[in-house]
TrEMBL record:
Its EC number is 1.5.1.5, 3.5.4.9. Residues 18-133 form the Tetrahydrofolate dehydrogenase/cyclohydrolase catalytic domain. Catalyzes the oxidation of 5,10-methylenetetrahydrofolate to 5,10-methenyltetrahydrofolate and then the hydrolysis of 5,10-methenyltetrahydrofolate to 10-formyltetrahydrofolate. Pathway: One-carbon metabolism; tetrahydrofolate interconversion. One of its GO terms (cellular component) is cytosol. GO terms for molecular function: methenyltetrahydrofolate cyclohydrolase activity; methylenetetrahydrofolate dehydrogenase (NADP+) activity. Homodimer. It catalyses: (6R)-5,10-methylene-5,6,7,8-tetrahydrofolate + NADP(+) = (6R)-5,10-methenyltetrahydrofolate + NADPH; (6R)-5,10-methenyltetrahydrofolate + H2O = (6R)-10-formyltetrahydrofolate + H(+). This is Bifunctional protein FolD. Residues 152-297 form the Tetrahydrofolate dehydrogenase/cyclohydrolase NAD(P)-binding domain. Belongs to the tetrahydrofolate dehydrogenase/cyclohydrolase family.
């Protein structure tokens, strides 16, 4: 598939949805096959430990789906839910225990952490061999250097979905909105690795709508519902919507929505990821794949063939 010249685009055609849920199911199968192979060799399944402090809504959605999918991929999921009042020292002590626990292969600390806790100190305490989120200095350094390592899951999912829609990404202009350590910054580096030309935008960027309009691929990762308007999107562009925002409905219930004005974007973009059903499921798929990889590496085994060509890095 290629992006069509906007002039040739038949009027009235709507954007093609990039089905993150279906892509994630395929990757989950690969992770499952890898987990089975490791279980047979090691006599125990790969194990992911998740630390959730406080009540961030996007994190709650993540944890719910992650536990289910880790288990259905034949891996063990251990959850550590802590109150928002947990101290930095308690959190560091827990990570210390998980680091030395021989049957824990992956450690993920949900971000953002509650106020008063220093996310950098906590994340950097994770053993890089277990850093399935790809956030430690060792993983981030490997990403910058182009060395092998565990890559951040959400950005890896964005690249995967962009490739699925567009094929080779060489030379495409990618505008990433958001520069967090979790999403925006590593996304910029991964698209750079895919030979894209990358602009990294943030809250101090001047004339963001004009910059966004130059994007062949627009990555929306600001956490601002509806921020990306129709006139921010170049006709024929691909929109990858990372935002997971819980918004109140008039009837008092709540819905998940992304950072793009989705309905309006459908008339302008050629390809778009929905929320839900886009990047979110891919994040979990990449996490499962990273857990299989971490488990194999820690045991000194080859990466199982089923996951070797997937993910990033
Ligand atoms: N789908 C998924 O799997 C995942 C989804 N998410 C979601 O993605 C979103 C972003 O997450 P995360 O990166 O952790 O969030 P952060 O809050 O850590 O970072 C947000 C970034 O967006 C920038 N930003 C905020 N407002 C604006 C604005 N008005 N104009 C331009 N830039 C802006 C900020 O700029 P500055 O640095 O200048 O402050 C910052 O760099 C959230 O909705 C989160 O829930 C996150 C992880 C995974
Ligand atoms: N250290 C860390 N790493 C993260 O990757 C991380 C994090 N902290 N904190 C929170 C955000 C958010 N996040 C999501 C992942 C998947 C879905 C997900 O499964 N979304 C489904 C939701 C479906 C539904 O349940 O409604 C979808 O979009 O289709 C959501 C949100 C990961 N994050």
């Amino acid at each position: 598939m290629t992006v069509q010249d906007p002039i040739l685009r038949p009027s009235g055609r709507r954007a093609v949805l990039i089905d993150g849920k279906a892509a994630a199911e395929g990757l989950d199968q690969a992770a499952r096959a890898g987990a089975l192979e490791l279980t047979q060799t090691l006599g125990r399944p790969p194990c992911l430990a998740v630390v959730l402090a406080g009540e961030d809504p996007a994190s709650q959605v993540y944890v719910r789906n992650k536990v289910r999918r880790t288990e259905s991929a034949g891996m063990i999921s251990v959850e550590h839910r802590l109150p928002a009042s947990v101290s930095q020292d308690e959190l560091l002590a827990l990570i210390g225990r998980l680091n030395i626990d021989p049957v824990v292969d992956g450690i993920l600390v949900q971000l953002p952490l509650p106020a008063g806790l220093d996310a950098q100190t906590v994340v950097q305490a994770i053993d890089p061999a277990k850093d399935v989120d790809g956030l430690t200095a060792a993983s981030a350094g490997a990403l910058v250097l182009g060395a092998p390592g565990l890559r951040p899951c959400t950005p890896a999912g964005c690249v995967y979905l962009a490739r699925q829609a567009l094929g080779d990404l060489t030379g495409r202009h990618v505008v990433v909105i958001g520069r967090s350590i979790l999403v925006g910054k590593p996304a910029a580096l991964l698209f750079l690795d895919a030979d894209c030309t990358v602009s990294l935008a943030h809250s101090r960027t001047r004339d963001l709508p004009a910059l966004a309009r130059q994007a062949d691929i627009l990555i929306a990762a600001a956490g601002r519902p509806g921020m990306v308007k129709a006139d921010w999107i170049r006709p024929g562009a691909t929109v990858i919507d990372v935002g997971i925002n819980r918004v109140a409905r008039p009837d008092g219930s709540s819905a998940l929505t992304g950072d793009a004005d989705y309905e309006a974007a459908l008339d302008i973009a050629d390809f778009i990821t929905p929320v839900p059903g886009g990047v979110g499921p891919m994040t979990i798929a990449m996490l499962l794949i990273n857990t299989v990889r971490a488990c194999a590496r820690r045991a000194g085994l080859a990466i199982p063939a089923s996951v070797a060509g997937t993910g990033a890095g």
